[in-house]
């Protein structure tokens, strides 16, 4: 697996140094930099570890960076570390770290369904899904409708939505008049469907073609 660099990223060395060797992780607030190094040294040679602290109190924010010597080490750490660390590639240092941290918190703590959801929720205590009437206006269900401007391929769409646990079936149809694609997806739980909609609505498949994912009424009590 190769990671393609953006055309605006400069030289390969710049990309390797800034974008492919540094990971961002969620950690217990009592962790020291030595604890962080000890946990992640199994995946490769570490250049440095740092913990993000409150500028006023000096207390840990429960977030940290680990910089490896090789991109393959960082990739291995993301793949193999415990899901509770929610490891991702860190933004380059020249971008706003505070906005990156805020986006990370927003995506990982406030909008993920509770439960064992790949790839971000390895342990339920790290995932908080709050019922927010202002955010969820539409009735939720276990069934989703997927609409595409281009035809959909059954096997590929099934593989895409099967990344979220609990997929029960995927039925792909094609409009013979417009050549557009349409599919009905059903999960075993509403939580899985909510997560799939959140992660895949607007997803480009194939590249340049954004999927539209909405809930379909399945006859169940959506208040749960």
Automatic annotation (TrEMBL):
Lineage: superkingdom: Eukaryota
Key words, A-Z: Repeat, RNA-binding
Domain RRM as annotated: residue spans: 21-95
SUPFAM superfamilies, per database record: RNA-binding domain, RBD (SSF54928)
SMART domains documented for this protein: RRM
A GO molecular function held by the record: RNA binding
Gene3D superfamilies: 3.30.70.330
One Pfam family named in its UniProt record: RRM_1
InterPro entries: Nucleotide-bd_a/b_plait_sf, RBD_domain_sf, RBM45_RRM2, RBM45_RRM3, RRM_dom
Matches recorded under PANTHER family: RNA BINDING PROTEIN
Name listed for the protein in its UniProt record: RBM45 protein
Organism: Centropus bengalensis
